[in-house]
Amino acid sequence: MRRLRPDALCLTTEPVGQPCISPDAGVGRNPMLSALAAQILGALLAGLLAVLLAPRLLALPLALAALQGACAVLASWRLGEPAWRLPIHALFMPLAVLVHGLDLPAWLWPAGLVMLLLVFWRTDRSQVPLFLSNRLCRKAVLDLLPASPCRVLDLGCGDGALLRQLARARPDCRFVGIEHAPLPWCWAWLSASNVGNLEIRFGDFWNHSLAGYAVVHAFLSPAAMPRLATKADDEMAPGARLVSNSFPFPDRQPDAVVDVTDRRHTRLHVYELQGARRS
Ligand SMILES: C[S@@+](CC[C@H](N)C(=O)[O-])C[C@H]1O[C@@H](n2cnc3c(N)ncnc32)[C@H](O)[C@@H]1O
Q1: pLDDT tens digits for range 235-260
Q2: Does one domain contain both 181 and 56?
Q3: Do both 98 and 187 map to the same domain?
Q4: Which residues span the domain enclosing 143?
Q5: Which residues contact 12 (CB under 8 A, 6 or more apart)?
Q6: Which in 96, 99, 175, 242 has the greatest CB count within 10 A?
Q7: Which positions of the chain have pLDDT values less than 70?
């Protein structure tokens, strides 16, 4: 049986006892700086190896780039970066060399950067990338709403698809989504315009109070969970429910776990708030 490892907070579902690199490994340092460091160290090491052992490589840009990729992987691993970055380090320089050969117009690069920013915003700071709840997860969240009319919040609502489905299925409830990435927010906001009981707000959900919501849904990342646990304890009313897709609070057993029968073996961690920290 495969199950989520509570000890390592893995996004992946390695069996307990197997080595596991959590998606937030290495987040203590600035992730942009450590990625840059891995690339620079990879370039220095590859240059040194080429000069000392195989000077012919200096005339072969693609082969040199492949060597730099291998060295950057090594540096990234030694720097303790998360495993998902290794293939990116391996391919970054070889792809840069290949694409450079295509002689594309210069404006394409800043345009690509702006596009990435609009979709993902400051993922390097939030440590929460954009990935969306699937249909089966959305249905499982719907089943977790109380029978009586209530207010529901989605922290980082992405394209708003989850909330649209919930809002249509439960016209007696009110739904709020907050999103800080401009393009997903714009899409969510536009698509919510014909859904009367759904409001999409632009902004940082850390600045939004969780008080007054019967259910708060979060699909974030392990890096966000300690702060979210404190925020939920401080602000949510006793009896309110926090549903976290995939990522549990650290050092706390959920009150219930819903196993979704999707391909990812998604788990919804359900916490019934006690309001213990409210004074
Ligand atoms: C994993 S996606 C989940 C999307 C949606 N809730 C769902 O379940 O399909 C997380 C979203 O949170 C957004 N996000 C991350 N940090 C945020 C913050 N501090 N304020 C607002 N949105 C944030 C990201 O831009 C991303 O769209």
Answers
A1: 999 999 999 999 999 989 999 999 99
A2: no
A3: no
A4: 135-272
A5: 20
A6: 175
A7: 1-29, 276-279
